[in-house]
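Researcher: Good morning. I'm working through a list of sequences from a screen, and I'd like to move beyond sequence-only analysis. For each chain I'm collecting a predicted structure so we can compare shapes side by side. This is the next one on the list. No need for commentary yet; just the structure.
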Amino acid sequence: MNITVSKPFLPPLERYLSYLKLIWEKEWLTNNGPMVREFEARLKEYLNLDYIVYVSNGTIALQLALKILNIKGEVITSPFSFIATTSAILWEGCEPQMVDIFSDTLNINTSLIEEAITDRTSAILVPHIFGNPCDVQKIEEIGKKYRLKIIYDGAQAFGTYYDNRSIFAYGDIATISFHATKLFHTVEGGALVVRSKEIERKLRMMRNFGFADEYAICGLGINAKNSELHAAMGLCNLFHVKDIINERKRISERYDKNLEGLPIKKQKIAEGTQYNYSYYPVIFPEKDVLEWTVSQCQKMGIFPKRYFYPSLNQLSFLKKRTFCPVSEYIAERILCLPMYNNLSVSTVDLISEIVINALRG
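Model: Good morning. Structure tokens for this chain:
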């Protein structure tokens, strides 16, 4: 048995091969080919959004978002996230200003944001943790009040809707990851969702070294392009998103049933959310119970993951270390249990039994 925390969904091979045949016929592998353009168009249609730019991964999407918005100085962010949220800020020469999280939703604590704002603050960049929407109304209210740009890291949020709109419809820019571990993937990939045709146009140049056309270099750029083969995987997988989310919901509900009444906490999903069931995190009462659970799972060939550990405010290379007690507490005790399509009921029951035994001592 080898059960990992996630496993990529693979579409029917025949469908992918049909796209590969078209790629072979055109002999166009990259550089904004027809598959990439079709994929972007299909994404816009699927999400009911107007301006989307497909790039090579979710991290470069964050970096491009910071660059296109000309973000300088301090950027308010959450310490409870994947490292890319913070590293993108640092990579672009900005300073992350950590703000602690809510203990229930695991998203940034909006009541603490204003006290962290200084005259050097230029943006708020926060993730929708495990696909659970941040308090977007409050964050955007703060952004308007202090004239701050807002970037949402939606790496885990594909398929989540809030107030009957895609969660990517909020903020100045929303970024997406299409990494193979995500419920919807293109093997590697990412995207930026923006609010104007002009920003979309500029991002298309920036992802292609700054070229506006074959010869005209109109500004600073980088190589953030993605290939026809990756776009083809995305086109295939778009057919299956609804079924993928329904399957993950089924697995989540089985975990819920098995673990009901135990002294663990689960993430509170924001009201008004159509959730995507991207992960199944549980918060243990003590760190040693979590560690025992992990060791017992590994003996059985099961590999849950400590998302997210450590709390990013504790990174050794940060110039400014901020005390974030809630994030630090959660990071020590949270564990994501395996969650992916075709995970069998018997395996979910086995994992649940290990958790139950750990909690009962």
